[in-house]
Amino acid sequence: MGCLGSKDKDELEKAEKGRDRRQFKWSYDCVEEKRWKGPGKDEFIARFREEGETAAEGRAKMEKHLNSVELEGETRVWMPGELDGYDITFDKCNGCDFYVLDITSQVQIDNCENCRFFIAPCVGSVFIRNSKNNRFILAASQVRLYQCNDTKLMMYVPRRAVLECCKGLSVACWNLNYFQLPTQFSRCQLSLFDNGWYNYDDFGTGSAPKVLPVSTTPDDIMSMQDRPWKNMLKELDGEGEVSEQVMVPLTSGIRKDDGCFVLFSPSLGHVASLVTGHFSGGYGGKALDLAATREFGAIDDTSLEKLFTERSKFGKQFKQRSALFGKGPVIGCLVTGASGAGGIIRGLLRTTGVCLLGEADPDLSPDLKAGQVYIWEGSSAKKAASFFLDELKTSLDG
Question: What's the angle, vertex CA 168, arms to CA 166 and CA 169, rounded to 5?
Answer without folding.
Answer: 75
